[in-house]
Amino acid sequence: MPMEGETSQEWQRTSELIIRDSEIDPFSRENDHKTEITSASFDTILPDEILEKIFSFLPVLSIIRAGSVCKRWHGAVHSGKHSWNNMPPQKPWYFMFTYSKNIVGYAYDSSFRKWYNFDFPCLDKCNWFVSSSCGLVCFMDYENRNRILVCNPITRTWKQLQQPPNGKSPDYSALALSVDRFSLSYTVAVVKSRQLPDDFLQWDFTIQIYESENCLWVASINEVLEGWRGGDESVICNGVLYCLVYSFSGNNERRHGLVMYKLCSNFPRASVMGSMILVPCPLTCGRLMNLRDKLVMVGGIGRHDRPDIIKGIGIWELEKEEWQEVARMPHKFFQGFGELDDVFASSGAEDLIFIQCYGAPALLIFDMSHKQWKWSLRCPVTKRFALQLFSGFCFEPRLEITS
């Protein structure tokens, strides 16, 4: 693994070439002349569209590096947007950071198994709700939940969405983003839950939908939940918004439930509580993710006598409204986190699930296709004091998608 400084310089040098064009031509005519003499004829006879197509099969970081080889490859990388549309899904990266004034941390490239210094240009603090899909990452400000940003972290382009209607501050919020891989349009769903003042068992539950094609908030539903409240976990999968809700009555052993809302439907809207599915066992926390259009949940399994104390971590997949257990974390990996609280960070994309505790920078990866657990390479960040907190999320690196 490269030293920390070397890794940082590599990312900054290569990413700059793909992010913005330099006004100063870094390739002299003398260098071009030498390239023409020494390069293989294979490169010179390839049409530009074929060269771009070849690049599109590479991992994103390899494409960025290719842009620094010569002037022709630099041009192919910058002009290959049509080829990038046909890129296969990329292995996800995981961005890990420690809570501080700025959201600066390290990105783990699961293709090359390397960490890079990384930052998000649109963020000025750490407290955000986060959701990612197909190259884009959506952020909602924890303090001002009407402030919502959509960003491509590789090209470093971003956009702030217009404020959603009825911008009252809720008690609990959840955020979900879904990108259409064909049209490259995206949908943002904001779920808000607020306790009603007259009855502590009743919660106002609101879903607001934003569509990038219209640049508008196009739908909003409102319902009152009895004995249940919304939380901070939701995801969009196959055109359906899934949200975890939490029992508020105190007499339900399974304190988590799953409700769903079809984003596109010509039928009358049914009650979201009418579609509720209970979780498979008592959980300390649940994390939802869309893996290849399959709804997957990672949950901390609570003890039967003390459901608020975690005894393990499980992974389930929803099949026709029934939870199917995929795997349970082996005890040696569970112990490898050291002290694991009842809540933890977990996100996933494609076939990979990332699990991280808030108290340490250790990152565990589960491969759904091979049913294998493995630790990532050690993150360069170090824990400086006992109460230092860490968090993170994953995203798919892509070049063609803009906000």
Automatic annotation (TrEMBL):
CDD domains according to UniProt: F-box_SF (cd09917)
Alphabetical list of InterPro entries matching this protein: Beta-prop_At3g26010-like, F-box-like_dom_sf, F-box_dom, FBXO31/39, Gal_Oxase/kelch_b-propeller, Kelch_2
Residues annotated as transmembrane: none
Matches recorded under SUPFAM superfamilies: F-box domain, Galactose oxidase, central domain
Key words, A-Z: Ubl conjugation pathway
Superkingdom assignment: Eukaryota
SMART domains xrefs: FBOX (SM00256)
Annotated ranges, domain F-box: 40-87
Pathway the protein acts in: Protein modification; protein ubiquitination
Organism, as annotated: Dendrobium nobile
Gene3D superfamilies listed in its UniProt record: 1.20.1280.50
Residues of the signal peptide: none
Protein name: F-box domain-containing protein
